[in-house]
Description:
Elements: H1 2-30, H2 35-38, H3 45-56, H4 62-74, E1 85-86, E2 92-93, H5 94-129, H6 134-148, H7 151-171, H8 177-195, H9 199-222, H10 232-251, H11 257-283, H12 287-308, H13 313-337, H14 340-346, H15 367-405, H16 408-415, H17 420-448, H18 452-457, H19 463-473, H20 476-504
Antiparallel strand pairs: 1-2
Helix pairs in contact: 1-20, 5-6, 5-15, 5-17, 5-19, 5-20, 6-15, 7-15, 8-9, 10-11, 10-13, 11-12, 11-13, 12-13, 15-17, 16-17, 17-20, 19-20
Amino acid sequence: xxxxxxxxxxxxxxxxxxxxxxxxxxxxxxxxxxxxxxxxxxxxxxxxxxxxxxxxxxxxxxxxxxxxxxxxxxxxxxxxxxxxxxxxxxxxxxxxxxxxxxxxxxxxxxxxxxxxxxxxxxxxxxxxxxxxxxxxxxxxxxxxxxxxxxxxxxxxxxxxxxxxxxxxxxxxxxxxxxxxxxxxxxxxxxxxxxxxxxxxxxxxxxxxxxxxxxxxxxxxxxxxxxxxxxxxxxxxxxxxxxxxxxxxxxxxxxxxxxxxxxxxxxxxxxxxxxxxxxxxxxxxxxxxxxxxxxxxxxxxxxxxxxxxxxxxxxxxxxxxxxxxxxxxxxxxxxxxxxxxxxxxxxxxxxxxxxxxxxxxxxxxxxxxxxxxxxxxxxxxxxxxxxxxxxxxxxxxxxxxxxxxxxxxxxxxxxxxxxxxxxxxxxxxxxxxxxxxxxxxxxxxxxxxxxxxxxxxxxxxxxxxxxxxxxxxxxxxxxxxxxxxxxxxxxxxxxxxxxxxxxxxxxxxxxx
Length: 511
């Protein structure tokens, strides 16, 4: 393993050196850092030109300047990066400019990638298991349509329907009868298609989903939930129970009672801790507090699983840990929603869902205000990036799982009398995830490079905007700062994908 990693890192360093040499020289040859000054009418124009030539060593050939830049970049190994000065950013250090942009982009990419992976893989698996059904045909049609949509058009639609009209509704929330009927109808069709079965079962599923979804929307409307949203201890427990049943069904199967009991016990513990945690959230609102609570949530699940799991301690601990973290996340969301009424009073009149920027300028408040504000700005660009990736992951997951399900070892597993859940989750899915791991690694690298169009539409100052600004100004150092971050991260994620192959398929050896 170590030999493989070192060999790959050696090859990676060589590739990065050659690529950086080409990018630097092409940019330096085609760019003109003095263009802006030459067009200036300033009386000290010549002095400014001379200062910039001296600052950027423009009197030296591009090749010599590259090796001078490489010497500063090599110091990143000892955590003392010197990537030069970004003259287009008022002579700001490139490391500072890249650090700010990378933080915004990684925040956006992380949310979009997690959503795309969860929904894309789930929908892809369901369509593969329901091959040639009406649900499969519908999802296939929708994924092809969404995948072919231009991202700028998706972003514009999100601004219109996800921000402008939704904000108009939130300013005066009134749930109409037509909204209740439409919500129930859509929910009924979705659940009926996913669960399938005989027509009698489909009609029962449709009716149950119609009543549940429509009734929930009606209840939220008459209680004024949209004006003062909250989850509450009842919602936390209900969500936790649902997570316990769902995660146990996927992880070990509901027949494993100890794993299910471990998960339900964890949910009960979080329900008992809900009220005391409100005082902790009030007096110690820090990011480190949430971080350590998240670690404690995982540890709590492992502890309960080990105590209750019996002979299946490992499976019970794993399942309870996941359920515990999900329940903890819901508790945090509940706390964030408590500041919603005050947040609405403090923000401008444009509405709750923001359409530009990554934060509200001049907004003052504690950590909970900042989290809610960040979510309000993050939701639209995240959906814009995730919706296309969901369509792609759905197609990849479907085709990959269908190919694996026809293999001999899957038929052998069925012949041994294993349940369908065990055959799909433990045998087929591991091999089906191998090509998907490669796609995800490339996708993450591309997104970190900056979704230029999405960032431009939503005025999100990330890596894409940094790269475009550097090219337009002829700022070679800024462009190379972008290259260093995206190149290194792309290589790292591809190395992780290679290592995942051996974890997913024991037949693959990285050596």
